[in-house]
Amino acid sequence: MAEYHLQPVVLQGTEAVALTPLNASPREWITCVLADFDAFLQDHASAEKKASGMALSMVSHYPDKPALVRAMVDLAVEELNHYKEVMRLLMAKQITPAADRKDPYVTRLNKLVRKDAAFFLLDRLLIGAIVERRGAERFALIAKHVADPELQKFYAAIAKSEERHWHLFVQLATDLCGHLPVNCRFCELADLENALVADLPVRPALH
Ligand SMILES: [Fe+2]
Ligand SMILES: [Fe+2]
Description:
This protein is mainly α and 207 residues long. It has a single domain, classed as Ferritin, CATH 1.20.1260.10. 74% of the residues lie in helices and 0% in strands. It contains 8 helices and no strands. The protein is globular. One fe (ii) ion binds at residues 51, 79, 132, 135, 162, 165.
């Protein structure tokens, strides 16, 4: 997999500890994904493309925030590179890419964004962090359980990359709002996300 240039963000120990962890994905999830890996790959390609689009929409909405613009431009490129890599896998396996569908997990998380201007960007950034964190956890599960050594390597690299992304979103939110509001809201959103994951049906898809 190609190397990308997104600046690594390392959260300090106390920062990471203060953030509520996400519960482990249900065991059925990895079983379901491995049972229909072609369908999973189709959904994974769409998810990477949407992640790139989301980063670009942040650039369009906040042109007056240069640090955010720089980070989101880099992120959009990195996610698009993930998309390219997954599309290569699909093509090599002669799998037809699927039409993009609404992701129920992301749709329901986005409903938690408070519309008040004081909170809107904070919530968008923290939901970005949570989606990336869940993605990192799930890609690492695939790296651990998939039989093909090439796929193991590929998903381990993707998991590392998504791990950096959730740290980046937390860092951007902290730079904007400070530690305390970030920690409090992240913990609230993580609790809601844990309940959401428990409620959603398991599919051969990222979420
Ligand atoms: Fe990605
Ligand atoms: Fe990502």
